[in-house]
Amino acid sequence: MSTCALWDEQRLSRQDKEPKLRLSLETRVAEDVTVICCKGRIAYGIEAAALSGEFAERAPQTRRVVIDLGGVEMIDAAGLGALISVALMAQESQCSVTLAAPAISSANCWSLPS
Predict the structure, then answer these.
(1) Cβ distance 73 to 38 under 8 Å?
(2) Domain residue limits at 36
(3) pLDDT of residue 15
(4) How many other C-beta atoms lie within 10 A of the C-beta of residue 77?
(5) 33-42 and 23-30 as β-strands: parallel, antiparallel, unpaired?
(6) Which residues of 46-56 are buried (b: 16+ CB within 10 A; e: fewer)?
(7) Are 60 and 93 in contact (CB under 8 A)?
(8) Is residue 14 in some structural domain?
(9) What is the pLDDT of residue 84?
(10) Strand 33-42 with 64-75, pairing
(11) Residue 37: per-residue pLDDT
(12) How far apart are CA 77 and CA 103, in angstroms?
């Protein structure tokens, strides 16, 4: 097997093992309120980072943010940490944050990441 073929095989194998984002974020702006709708899970790794990043990007442009958790199936400890991080960033940027529609049960809130 050639070096290039081996490298391609290893790269494809690595892509199969890379984590896939299991959180979709949809952001809407209505008047002076930014609404971030979350669907999926907020867990350790890329999901928690995606939510924090989305908020960090929007915070300087607005004074009020609503994070809609109605579509969230599971939040782990890192997800709760991301929400706390969002609250701290909001406080620093003088932006208010409201959590809306937390529909998850406490059993799903404390799930371990898979």
Answers:
(1) no
(2) 20-109
(3) 45
(4) 15
(5) antiparallel
(6) ebbebbbebbe
(7) yes
(8) no
(9) 94
(10) parallel
(11) 95
(12) 17
In this structure, what token pair is assigned to residue 10?
């290893």
Q: Residue 104 maps to which CATH number?
A: 3.30.750.24
Helix then strand count (H, E) for the chain reads: 4, 4
Dist CA 55 CA 39 (whole Å): 15
For β-strands 64-75 and 96-100, DSSP reports them as parallel
DSSP state of 63: S
104 token code pair: 């998850």
Give the list of residues 6+ apart from residue 107 with CB closer than 8 angstroms, or none. Answer: none
List, in sequence order, every residue forming a beta bridge with 99; answer none if it has no partner. 67
CB burial class (10 A; 0-12, 13-18, 19+) of residue 42?
buried
Averages of pLDDT over runs of 10 residues in the chain (114 residues) are 51 53 91 92 91 91 93 91 93 92 60 50
Count the domains in the chain.
1
Strand partners, 42: 75
Rg of the chain taking only CA atoms, in angstroms: 17
